[in-house]
Amino acid sequence: MTIHHIGIITKDIQKSILQYEKLGYTCLGETTLDYIQNNIVTFLSSPDNKQKIELISPANRNSTIVNFPAGYHHICYDICDDPNYLSQFKKLKIGKVFTQPTIAPAIENRKIVFALLQDGTFVEFIISR
């Protein structure tokens, strides 16, 4: 299991891109409309290229994050190399997967699921290549 990115909600994605660029982050491609979750998404790489952040902004009233405050939203793990990880996660009893597998247009149309840990932390898992 490896960290893929940290998700951050913003109300103005263009202003946030400029803010993170001033901190040395670099955009990793075009901004994407996630038509499934109704969000606008862009990825940036840290100055040392070791971490990625995902900036997420609501595209419309049907956005999955429309009622969330700006700031930290989730940590995303790539678990594609461990197909049994979700069943192992369920056995740990530290949280619950609360979404069905969904295609993520901003992550090369790979499938993802979201879980909620007992402490209220959101976790995203990338489950397919």
List keywords for this structure.
2 helices, mainly beta, 129 residues, 2,3-Dihydroxybiphenyl 1,2-Dioxygenase, domain 1, ten-stranded mixed sheet, single chain
Residue fraction in strands:
35-45%
User: Averaged pLDDT, please?
Assistant: 96
Measured distance between first and last alpha carbons: 14 Å
CATH fourth-tier homologous superfamily: 2,3-Dihydroxybiphenyl 1,2-Dioxygenase, domain 1
What is the fold named in CATH at topology level? Answer: 2,3-Dihydroxybiphenyl 1,2-Dioxygenase, domain 1
Number of strands: 10
Secondary-structure class: mainly beta
SSE series: EHEEEEEHEEEE
- Helical run tally: 2
Largest sheet, described in full? 10 strands, mixed
Please tell me how large the radius of gyration is.
14 Å
Could you say how many structural domains there are in total? 1
Which secondary structure elements does this structure contain, and how are they paired or packed?
Layout: E1 2-9, H1 13-22, E2 26-27, E3 32-34, E4 39-45, E5 52-58, E6 71-78, H2 85-92, E7 95-97, E8 102-104, E9 110-117, E10 122-126
Parallel strand pairs: 1-5, 6-10
Antiparallel strand pairs: 1-6, 2-4, 3-4, 4-5, 7-9, 8-9, 9-10
3D architecture notes:
This protein is mainly β and 129 residues long. It has one domain (2-126): 2,3-Dihydroxybiphenyl 1,2-Dioxygenase, domain 1 (Roll), CATH 3.10.180.10. The chain has 2 helices and 10 strands. It has helices spanning 13-22, 85-92, and strands at 2-9, 26-27, 32-34, 39-45, 52-58, 71-78, 95-97, 102-104, 110-117, 122-126. Strands 1, 2, 3, 4, 5, 6, 7, 8, 9 and 10 form a 10-stranded mixed β-sheet that branches. The longest helix has 10 residues, at 13-22. The radius of gyration is 14 Å and the shape is globular. The two termini are 14 Å apart.
